[in-house]
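Much of what follows relies on a compact textual record of a protein's fold. A complete example follows; check for yourself that the lines match position by position.
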Amino acid sequence: MKLAPLCLFILLSALVCTVACGGGGFAASTKASATPSGTIAGTATNFLQTFSAGIAHASGNYGFTNENYLIEGAERIQQLGSKSIFVYLTPTFRSTYPDRKSASWPATDPTNVADLVQAAPYAHVLGLPFQTIVLTAYTFATHDQVAGFASSGREQAEENEFYNLAIYLFHHYEGTGKTFVLKNWEGDWIGLQGSRDASRNISDSMINDMRAWLSARQRGVTRARQDAGNPTTVNVFNAVEVNRVLDFAQNGLARVINTVVPAVASDMVTYSSYDSTLQGTDPGSMQAAMTLALNTIKQFAPDPLGLGDKRILISEFGLYENERQKETIWRTQTLLSTAKSAGLSGAFMWNVFDNECHENNGQPAPIDTAQGDPMRPSDGECRGLWAIRPDGSTSSVVSVLQKYW
């Protein structure tokens, strides 16, 4: 799975990362409520009329400069021509985006995400001319300790931290026309708690914990939007991320899409799409799997802001260029054309620099290894989740993305 090395760092904060699928039993499916409770205007008009093809940047195994790694990757994405970016905003920021020699991170760790997003590297990246910015955000109050959340007493702290983050984004970026999407990491892996048993459901207790956790985050963003006066020149949306949609659609298993999403009624739903976009052996069969997944999301995702199909965004797809050399181009073309035709707001490729490289001994390569470092992976020691390869060359996939810029 594409996130394995990245998850090692998120796991250190307590989340269990796995490539399992599940099965079992919570109350069957809960369908989305049909009627929007509000609408947005202003920049929402631009958001509703565009399709964003972006690139992610997190925990790559190599770099090319001595700059802060967050800034280096973001600037490389901008240089490629993308107007959309996806990065992480979490308490593990120092390991996800090493400083190397730039000393850009604050000497003392922030205590909340609203302060973290104002740190110099984030301020620089958010100030670049990206129009859509997706942030996997975890609070300092909870980190990613979701199990037991419903009885933890942390709901108000979680809500407040998301409120403060969102109100800062509303105020500071008002007038820029930017759209921010705040989301969790892949929700079904969180719910399955590391299980690789494909017959398991997400447990009732984890469903309750996830509902409480994700609802607290949504309340914070909703309250910030209201207190900011429902701005029309900047968008800040909260999203629930799903990643095992076909487990429910094909096998009826309890997953986030059918047990959590309808209860939370988030502004948006993001989809880490590997369960459908790596299926099939040709464009037609891949498109069929994608369409089933997207129609399932549309069925269960509420639309509280009246965004229509734009409330759905593919937050991750990855092509493993070294392992699927003959599939990379047609899968990218099929994914982007299917997502755009389905009316989605965008799709983001993982990753600008591959984060699933290994050393000669088979161990995972470190993050942001420098040129000349003996631990730096070669092109052949990576799986191919990249826009830029370790040798500095550009993946052919970028030419497909550029048609959507």
